[in-house]
Amino acid sequence: MDSGLLWKKALDEIELEVSENTFNSFFKSTKILEFSGSNLIISCPNSGVGFFLQSKYQMLIARMIEKYTGQRPKKILFQSVNNQAKSSKSIGPLFSDEPESVDFKLQKAGLSPNLSFENFAVSVSNQLAHAAALAVASNPGKTYNPLFLWGGVGVGKTHLLNAVGRKIIETIGGSVYYCSTEDFMNSLVESIKNKRTDSFRKRFRNIDALLLDDIQFVSEREFVQEELFHTFNKLRNANKQIIFTSDKPPKLIPKIEKRLASRFLSGLVVDIQVPDFELKTAILLIKAREKNVPIDVGVAKIISANIEEIREAEGFLLKLRALQESGTEIKKELIERLIVQSEGARVVNHNPREIIKIAARELNVKLKDIKEDNRKQNVAMARHIIMYFLKTLTNLPYEDIALLLGKKDHTTVMHGVQKVMNQIPNDDILRRKVETIKNYFV
Hints:
21 helices, alpha/beta, 8 strands, 442 residues, globular, three-stranded mixed sheet
């Protein structure tokens, strides 16, 4: 990110956190001279300003820089104008007179540059939400206003918010502001504390689209809901677009005021379902391509079928990328081993005998047949499924699982686990059986 843009974004945040006098006296005339990632040098009008900022606001500045770059400066230096060495290379202005680029507007709006409609995978579970978001982005303020998207973790709510904001900026050049509800509340509290409510209202009300993520966290404090209510009315009356996301429908948000819930319900409310197997596989392939992780459809299916949460599956991709960068070749056998390890590490409190009992009952086989050398096809498959669950729902080693099931050789267990893991992606009946049993333990 350009240092001028970085400092502008940091100053916008700092202005909300300090008093007006402090900002005008000490921050307004500063700019970044150099930022190498470890060292940050800030230009100040005089040494007094530099001393004051170094004494009182180093932590605040470091936090803002980290927020927008992901890097926390190890050292912050303040250099007065009089002490700056003359250079033939002039430092660019803090604010450019050139028209703002799309990338600049995205950053200014708080939007992710990587989330768009183009890389959003659509299936039955999110088709309506995608269509509504696309309609809103094409005609903001006039179609489905407000739009309320709700669903569980990892179903794509935040992705759609960012995609709408991006399309509004790209197509009509509109002003957009995206933030979490927590950020909305924190900004309001700071503005009240520093007597800067006018700046707060200017930020949230003089825009073409307000995108608030995770509205279920709206505070029960009366003044927060009061401000949100008036912000909503101001934008709605001006035909400005409002979109909320939540993990639950409006009426089930804890301690929400009835008048606020009724505002949420006055537009279109859309439930986004958990992604099905095919959609989750498509999402993983998109994410893998973005992260430059070399996996094919077959491997994506294995990951999708064996890791429940989409966020956890994305984390698994990051693990693969880290291994790839360390020189490890990404092979199917490695992925199978990592899945077993990650699943076993995630849940370690289930009773192995209870797993055997429940799985046998759901698979309609007798416990004695599981432990004896019964080679009937349905019994053998049930035995393999139980091996799979004992390995993925506990931290038992293969040898202990073999003893539990009356087997002498732990390689039999390894074979059974791998067989189920590889068969789930291609066998709908097996996948449904596995999901049914898994529901007892989540």
